[in-house]
Give the backbone structure.
Amino acid sequence: MSARSLRFFFLAAPLLLIPAPAQTPKTAPKSALSSAPAPAQWTAPKTPWGDPDLQGWFTNLSEDGTPLERPDQFAGRKLEDIQGAELAKIKEDIQKRTVTNFEGPLHAPEHWWQDDLNLVKGSQAWLIVDPPDGKIPALTPQAKERAAVRAAARRTSGRGPADSWTDLTLYDRCITRGLPGSMMPAIYGNSYQIVQSPGFVAIRYEMVHETRLIPVVPAGQNAPPHTASSVRSYMGDPRGHWEGDTLVVETSNFREESTYRGANASTLRLIERFRRVAKDRVKWAVTVDDPDTWTSPWTFSMPLTMDDSQPVLEYGCHEGNYGLRNILSAARAAEKQAAEGAAKK
């Protein structure tokens, strides 16, 4: 796999413009007269053709380890309540656990991840912002039935967990992390590039070397219809439009094997919102809407921090990576050992 160094910086809150009085009173103290003028409020840039400019190289590594749902220890509290020293302590503990998980007799070289892993810069204690309790809504009866059918099929198939490469996940096989998985934080490979042109937005993902090409219509226009339901892909079929400074992208037409968290490929819609909130930050929010899987839609959100020093690198997933072959050969060795043991009895 590609080895890379992930570095990023933390955003300071933007300053607000405080209008100066039209005329300075004669009694004003000398310190007030000599104070520096208030800085101008930051304004989101525009592309040459007038769309909000989201372009750049981004990372969300600092949110690696942030739980999707609100931990039970914060029951009754809001996301914005967990700030300052309390949040820093939570992130410090997550970082320690993450580093510890990579230590042991078989692990990457010391400081392979540690030097650039700074989870203390994370800005959230959990990711789900709706519903207010920070929990994924309950599964529908039909979703529970689908999960039970899949589990029963695995138990009665007569196949082992690694009889073939097809028994392994699309991620294990370096095909895709799906959507929204491709932009979810991980220990490495968290670089993303957003590129715009009139009528299109492209998003490149370092892991696993995918690019989404999103048709985008100007504000006030309706997005073109999705392709026929028979045309499906791992990352779905996206359509974008502008709502003020926010890019809204609705994606459907997923393949069954790449749907998010076991959703129904025929009914799943993902609605993403990208909004530039500061010079070096884009807020990314995802609404998961599948009435056949969850009793109500739910939304999670996190920041994408700009870092021009870390472009998307090639993710040569299985060039020199023997993980898949080793998984299959280990399974065959285990089967051989079991057969030889049975023959001796």
Remarks:
- Residues 56-60+129-306 form one domain.
- Residues 127 and 226 are 29 Å apart (CA to CA).
- The longest strand covers residues 269-278.
